[in-house]
Amino acid sequence: MIRPTLYIFALLLFLTQCTIETEPINYGTDSCHFCKMTIVDQQHAAQIVTKKGRNYKYDAIECMVNSLPQWKSEEIHTYLIADFSVPKKMIDATTAHYLIAEHMPSPMGAFLSGFENETIRNQYAKSEKDQTLNWSELQKAIAKK
After folding, report:
1. Helix (H) or strand (E) holding 143
2. Phi first, then psi: what are they for 105, rounded to 5°?
3. What are 99's strand-pairing partners?
4. In what order do the strands lie in the sheet with 97-100?
5. Contact in structure between 65 and 45 (CB atoms under 8 Å)
């Protein structure tokens, strides 16, 4: 006869295996899934977490967006980006506010930064050439390049 504690242990083990969590980015050690560069910039990093719980890290938002064609949307649990105004803070990429501005270089040269707060993003926009975008507009803009 199997003891009830064994059932409880097995259930807890099963539940912990099903947890989908974001892994922290190890700056200076982790490599970009798209371009293979070492991730060092704490204001431009990005990450995809799949529904299977796998984490794919990127050194720039543009690397993550450029990698999207390789993914089926139903595979993705979470899209994350670093908030430019709060380095290392990862935020939901689908609700973030984006800025393409030549006075703000990003690791791969797209001059792309993301912000959790729209007002703060707008404070960084300094020129009429600067582009403010949402998630869907960003994907279209990167696809054109």
Report:
1. helix 135-144
2. -65, 145
3. 113, 132
4. 112-115, 97-100, 131-133
5. no
